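[recover] target loaded
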């Protein structure tokens, strides 16, 4: 070893006649090399360093060869010669010498070259010292630094893997982190295997790289003589430090590993809450043995992996429970409805790893009703947890029951709101209930804080149908605003009614109107089939992700082969709402024409309008108009108008004073029969028209 960068010695010309005492204190010997005479003088300490007695040394440098091995001498001569040639003032070098007992000792020499006025070297004076301990210390520091660096890299890898595992939500995510193309080499291992404990067995779930596992070990019993079984049974890691140890400890497994050139291995139990949930093996082909620090780092890695696995398992269990509860709360099947194609879809929210948030309060329902009618419900209970799902399940059942009892849509919604309020929960719900008469295509819609419905026309275009709405369910009862206006729309054959929750529309950072426009464009560009269109819409929702559930219900009206009898329509008309009265007239006219009584449509519409107007004028309450077809010996169309007043109407003859009651004359003239029935705290005024049977 050369030390050409050493500083020049500042020594007097008569040195070493008066050597510095500091040199002696530091056990440095001195020499004076007369280049002209060829003599190499050393002091007593230098003789000790070279392990030569004064009588064994004749003063010539060549005589030192008895202690300096030949190759070391050649290297030292090369360093000195180079310094003399290139004009250097000094040189330094490490070399080995062999003491009389045969041991090799490292020595360091440093010389100062004295030149004459021409630059010719004439004399070299300097020091020699034993450097064995110095180099051993330096080597130890270098090795320690290398070990520290290797440990730092390994610790960093563990930290990086631990950080990546923090984002793992499922067991598959954990496996992906561990078998990543960079993870195994960064750990210094040639391959990795991991298994999970299942019913007294260990099932291999990960290997890296692919093919690293041994055939026949995909599923092994814990009591079989394999290293992963051992660490699971003992709950202690197993460090195998040589091929011989591996072969002796696991003679069944070792023959399958000989081609992998395995030199050592570390098997770690994966323990969570004092219970083994699996095991992991790291196999090395360039490592022999494990230091205490190596073992500590690997055990820490195993602990981190076990925690991530447990978290992932709990998440998957919670997710399975949530999905099972969600499916139990939603309808098990959708009834077949003559005259309509109905498709429903549900997509759970993306929870971002939060346990319990893979379940929500979104729901749909389809309710077959008498007279060729069908009820379609879409709703969303506030929140994303099991409580929201439980509230949703109860609300779905009672809303279905109210509709099946024959209540008009506004009453169904009002009663559902009262029910939710009386549940004494802090949740509210948005909801939309649509009651469609498939024989006429007339659809009555009631909206409680929910999105407006969409209609996809037969030509593929999509429109939004604005519907006046009331407060969300639960809030309307709390604030005493239970009136829900009823909107009416017509669904022609080939048209599709689209109901959805806001998870299908809302996007992070996007305006709700923009989301609605995007949805309308998707519906327009989508397939005609209700089932294929539903698949396409939910597929887009899956691609987009999102933190909200999506419920979707599509009802496509088919063309009927013949006009069906037994139809029934019902409409709520609020007082002081001219639009509601107009919608009721429109509904009645459309229904009568659809039921094959086109020639009597004007008369029926006129009589119904008269009865509704009387109810609104004389009762100070709302009216419910019901239109139905009665089958029997002759086909009849029946109009019923219900109001909350028990006062019976009086027919007035012409000539009596006043104008009130004269509308009943018109009713009597145009209808085949009419009458009044008491109904609870109110009454029903009804009339019937004989209409022709359908062809």
């Amino acid at each position: 070893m050369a030390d050409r960068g050493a500083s020049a010695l500042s020594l007097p010309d008569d040195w070493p006649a008066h050597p510095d005492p500091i040199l002696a204190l530091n056990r440095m010997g001195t020499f004076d090399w007369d280049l002209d005479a060829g003599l190499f003088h050393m002091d007593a300490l230098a003789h000790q360093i070279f392990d030569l007695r004064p009588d064994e040394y004749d003063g010539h440098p060549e005589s030192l060869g008895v202690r300096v091995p030949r190759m070391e001498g050649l290297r030292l001569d090369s360093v000195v010669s180079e310094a003399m040639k290139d004009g250097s003032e000094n040189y330094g070098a490490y070399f080995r010498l062999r003491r009389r007992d045969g041991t090799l000792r490292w020595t360091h020499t440093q010389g100062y070259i004295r030149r004459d006025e021409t630059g010719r070297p004439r004399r070299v004076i300097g020091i020699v010292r034993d450097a064995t301990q110095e180099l051993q210390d330096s080597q130890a520091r270098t090795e320690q630094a290398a070990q520290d660096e290797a440990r730092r890299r390994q610790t960093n890898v563990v930290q990086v893997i631990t950080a990546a595992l923090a984002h793992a939500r499922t067991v598959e995510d954990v496996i992906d982190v561990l078998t990543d193309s960079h993870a195994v080499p960064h750990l210094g291992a040639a391959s990795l295997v991991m298994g999970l404990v299942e019913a007294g067995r260990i099932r291999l779930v990960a290997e890296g790289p692919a093919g690293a596992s041994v055939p026949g070990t995909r599923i092994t019993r814990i009591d079989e003589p394999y290293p992963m079984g051992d660490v699971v049974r003992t709950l202690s890691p197993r460090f195998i430090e040589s091929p011989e140890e591996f072969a002796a400890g696991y003679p069944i497994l070792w023959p399958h590993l000989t081609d992998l050139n395995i030199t050592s291995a570390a098997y770690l139990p994966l323990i969570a809450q004092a219970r083994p949930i699996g095991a992991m093996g790291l196999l090395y082909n360039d490592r022999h043995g494990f230091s205490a620090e190596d073992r500590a780092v690997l055990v820490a890695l195993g602990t981190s992996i076990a925690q991530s696995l447990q978290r992932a398992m709990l998440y998957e269990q919670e997710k399975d429970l949530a999905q099972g509860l969600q499916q139990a709360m939603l309808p098990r099947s959708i009834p077949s409805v003559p005259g309509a194609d109905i498709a429903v879809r549900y997509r759970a929210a993306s929870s971002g790893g939060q346990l319990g948030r893979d379940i929500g309060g979104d729901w749909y329902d389809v309710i077959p009703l008498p007279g060729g009618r069908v009820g379609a419900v879409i709703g969303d209970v506030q929140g994303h947890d099991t409580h929201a799902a439980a509230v949703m399940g109860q609300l779905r059942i009672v809303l279905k029951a109210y509709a099946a009892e024959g209540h008009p849509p506004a009453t169904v919604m009002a009663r559902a709101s009262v029910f939710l309020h009386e549940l004494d929960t802090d949740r509210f719900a948005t909801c939309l209930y649509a009651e469609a008469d498939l024989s006429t295509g007339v659809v009555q819609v009631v909206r409680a804080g929910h999105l407006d419905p969409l209609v996809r026309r037969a030509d593929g275009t999509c429109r939004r149908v604005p519907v006046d709405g009331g407060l969300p369910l639960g809030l309307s009862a709390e604030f005493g605003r239970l009136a829900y206006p009823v909107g009416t729309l017509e669904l022609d054959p080939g048209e599709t009614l689209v109901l959805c929750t806001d998870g299908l529309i809302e996007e992070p950072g996007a305006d709700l109107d923009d989301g609605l426009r995007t949805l309308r464009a998707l519906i327009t560009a989508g397939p005609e089939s209700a089932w294929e269109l539903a698949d396409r819409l939910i597929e887009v929702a899956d691609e987009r992700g999102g933190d909200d559930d999506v419920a979707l219900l599509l009802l496509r009206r088919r063309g009927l082969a013949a006009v069906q009898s037994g139809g029934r329509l019902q409409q709520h008309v609020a007082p002081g709402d001219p639009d509601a009265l107009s919608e009721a007239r429109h509904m009645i006219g459309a229904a009568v024409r659809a039921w094959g009584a086109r020639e009597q449509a004007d008369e029926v519409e006129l009589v119904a309008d008269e009865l509704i107007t009387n109810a609104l004028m004389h009762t100070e309450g709302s009216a419910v108009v019901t239109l139905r077809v009665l089958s029997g010996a002759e086909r009849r169309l029946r109009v019923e108008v219900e109001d909350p007043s028990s006062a019976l109407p009086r027919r007035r003859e012409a000539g009596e004073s006043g104008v009130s009651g004269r509308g009943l004359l018109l009713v009597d003239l145009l209808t085949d029969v009419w009458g009044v029935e008491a109904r609870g705290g109110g009454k029903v005024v009804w009339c019937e028209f004989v209409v022709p049977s359908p062809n």
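[recover] notes: The radius of gyration is 48 Å.
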